Amino acid sequence: MDFKGLDILNGYQFTNQQLNHIMNTAAQYEKRVKAGEVIRDLEGMVVATLFFEPSTRTRLSFEGAINRTGAKCISMADAKSSSSAKGETTADTIRTVDGYVDVIVMRHPEKGSAQQAADAAVHPVINGGDGAGQHPTQALLDIYTMRKEKGHIGGQTITFLGDLKYGRTVHSLGYFMQQLGNKMIFASPDSLKMPEEITKDLRARGADIVETTDVKAALSQSDFVYVTRVQRERFDDLADYEKCKGSYVVNMELLKSAKKDITILHPLPRVDEIALEVDDYAGAAYFRQAHNGMYLRMALLGLVTGRA
Questions:
Q1: Active-site residues: which are they?
Q2: What pTM value is reported for the model?
Q3: Rounded to whole angstroms, what are the CA distances from 162 to 59, 159, 204?
Q4: Torsion angle of the four alpha carbons 295, 298, 303, 307, in this order, in degrees rounded to the nearest 10
Q5: Which of 28, 61, 243, 266 could disulfide-pair with 286, CB 3.0 to 4.6 Å?
Q6: Which residue segment(s) compose the domain that 153 sits in?
Q7: Do 276 and 161 fall within a single domain?
């Protein structure tokens, strides 16, 4: 299956066969890393990580993946350190960097910027998050985590909880869940509902979706709950943020209402939406989820360069 040269931009570009191949490739990389193998699959290659917006897990897991696969990394950690601070367009930045590297990984606050970058570049572009748009590599590592936690994926129920309006991760993951035959429950404050254009599109594709504000009822029938933080940085008015902050908090009391063996996911960082006491719950998978990101991103780098 040939992924060489492929841009990874959104949550609806892969067939089920391709998804399965990505997951199996990630599992092989995880096995090799845990066996202590020195991997040189991408030796001689250079990957750029361009982060115009803050990141911990995405940037560091990508850079870990780059190093673990034997490539070299050139990095830009924030917009202030790039010529975008001088007014350079994203397309011009990408055209320039494209001449230095074999793959570009980019995070940018502007929705649609990943497509702009892909249009400007000759080499593969991997979207590390474009504003409130998409975050496909996070969604892929979420699928990898779900598969590991339950042993399979498909025919299950997942509740998306919290900020579904600005949460680019759930936008991407929703398409994968529809594709894999999982029922979705969207639980959020009215002001942070999943955007109508996404819900409408998912339903047109055949998705089984329920929208609710009743968290207990949602969790009682869910195999997974995917928690998202209310993102202060997406609000123009701080008063609106304060109204939504802490709308839903997952704690041990709430989990008494949940389906037995529910798995808790979160793209992190968390603020106050998952109580610290939940960390000891066996189904709390969010730190395992974060660690899985490196293996999944190793797989993507190997696949788009044709080296995996």
A1: 57-58, 86, 107, 135
A2: 0.91
A3: 24, 10, 24
A4: -130
A5: 266
A6: 136-289
A7: yes
